[in-house]
Amino acid sequence: MSDDKKPADWKTYDEFAAGIATNRLAPTASLVGTTQMIQLDARSITLAFEDAHRVRVTDAASGDGTEWCEVIEVAPSTYFVDITFQHRPLQSMTAIVNTLSRRALVIECEVRSPQEAGAEPRVAQTFLVGRLAGGEASGLVPHESRDLIGLRTWQTYSPNHTYEHTYLSSQRYCWQCLVGVQRGHGDVDMATYYKFAEDQYLFTFREFLIPVASVFFFNFASGRSTGKFLGLTGAGAIANSPAGALMQKASQTLYSSQIEPV
């Protein structure tokens, strides 16, 4: 969206994201020295973790390379693995893997040109369900979910960042800033939800007003939200920024089958 269609005081990605990782869980080195092969329907992705921030990626769709990564244990044996690509800076990959159940979910993000995006958000996302090789997968298969529809949460990323989310439908969510530089701002953007396990969900959104999208893992049992943003700063630079919040359920709207959202 062009600048003349945004409110005059609308904040850029880098302006609102500063400090938004304050309440994020710390990275872990638990996967260093291990190799995890994610088997998808159409391809496999092998991740060989060399150190805390370096992974060797072998992927038939995108080729091989040693890339930057960050790994966070977001639930017991469940890891949020975020990867950026040095030769493909407009793209990123986030994998949620459970090394016990062997379930996996891969989210690919790409910042598109305004011409390619058209009327859609600039950042596109693709969701791929898979499993880890080397054993039988067990438990719930990750799948798109309607469980969050009607829920309202408060997300406190830092003393200077509190946002209210309302998950409106299977396609959209509403946000407003309660504390921070965006206080008083709010919007409705495109969203996708996957259930990963009991009390564990993937939540992503894609903004219209600025070129940014997010990938978050919600662990309602621990009250933690762990994620990242991929987008363009006010100067037009690509940025893949960490984020994390203390999460609290605020209310729940219940719908009858005759009037439920899409």
Our measurement of the CA-to-CA distance between the termini, rounded to an integer number of angstroms, reads: 26 Å
Helix content class: under 10%
Strand sequence of the main sheet, in spatial order?
1-2-3-4-5-6-7-8
What number of structural domains do the residues give? 1
Structural class: mainly beta
Question: What percent of residues are in strands?
Answer: over 45%
Q: How many DSSP E strands? A: 17
Morphology: globular
Q: What is the level-2 CATH architecture name?
A: Beta Barrel
Sheet having the most strands: 8 strands, antiparallel, barrel
**In angstroms, what is the radius of gyration?**
18 Å
Pfam families: MoaF, MoaF_C
Domain MoaF C-terminal: 143-253
Organism: Duganella radicis
InterPro entries: MoaF_C, MoaF_N
